[in-house]
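Quick illustration, no need to memorize.
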Amino acid sequence: MDISACIKKTSQVKSYLDRDVKHRDVAKLLDAARFAPSSGNIQNWRFLIVRNKETKEKIARACLDQLWIQEAPVLIIVCSNNSNIKTMYPKKWKKYSRENCAAAVQNIILQAASLGLSSCWIRSFNALRLKNILKIPDDVSVEAIITIGYSNERPKETRHKIEELTFFETYGNRRRDVSIFPLAKHLAKFKK
């Protein structure tokens, strides 16, 4: 699947089939994550794979009682090992930690879509509870949770038109070179 199709195929899925995800597919997700860009090439991300039913229930409760989370066959907990990043970026380490891990999350989501898997990126959780449940050390922060599995729904996400999101030269300036709009028309040329 080409990258454009993969990007357009991603959506936030909150209902999963009772179908296991192969270990080799999880390995492909993690391999994609490790190739994400990171500030200073520090690669601070760390990944916890959770398949255990009881643990998934505890995690779902720590995610502000989003109980649908436990339906997913696999949870990937994305963490940041902060020891090196704090040293390299003492003032901006939290920001860079999140940005680096977000890039890894995006790679996981794209790779999942390319494998026919569905996912959801979760940021609402009680980090302290998660750290206790998963025995995460003090200098490691929880940055995200990704549910992985086979969708039990047909998500219908709407997207804004690119013309609504784009400005020219200065923020808010909609005056444009009319020869490039509508952008959808020009993008269609590249698909051929």
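The chain has two domains: 3-149, 162-191.
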